[in-house]
């Protein structure tokens, strides 16, 4: 079985490739915009640009299972992903595994509509599928830890919303499991971390590990977005990130479902471990 992996040079893609290489190296194909940048992966690479649909089907020839890792261009992904799905059907791909979003069918996250549209396009294609509805990555908040330590506070707009995040490594394990074992066709997996936390609890963990008082400061959405702009985020990105926190306050990043740890066969990585690794 030949497995094609889009976004193979991205953070999640690289983890998945490296985990698969132990048993699947000769059957892996990296589908990336610039194949030369994939040389370090040590697997075959083909040029693959979501925005150039005319070349996608040829790049997918001979691929049995396609792991479609969602693109990172918010606002363009519906069209991009549909280009890939149409090409997969033309090329005779037998199965698509797609990295979607936790509860994409009812989430208030601005990311949800594009994910749901992609899911619907995959279902309509007639190709066998598995949908991995990934929850939040703990690293999304981990990236803010150094700045919080420097500033003396962790800021956001999530209120007391609980966040059931897991690490990219955890989600990579789930993708590998689904790609290499049977029984997943037609399944939609809601995937989230075993233990939820609030941003106040994250700030308390940072305080504990640094020995410094790092409180959580909850701000109105527009104020938080303004701070993100001030530290260098483009305004649309800052507004999007602030809106993610507001969605967290509404429970969109929270789940009591332990499907992820059940699927991968071990507990998801705890918050303390991520804080420790980030501070290190």
From TrEMBL:
CDD domains referenced in this protein's UniProt entry, alphabetically: TMR_SDR_a
Gene3D superfamilies assigned to the protein according to its UniProt record, in alphabetical order: NAD(P)-binding Rossmann-like Domain, UDP-galactose 4-epimerase, domain 1
Protein's UniProt name: SDR family oxidoreductase
Domain NAD(P)-binding: 7-181
Top-rank lineage group of the source organism: Bacteria
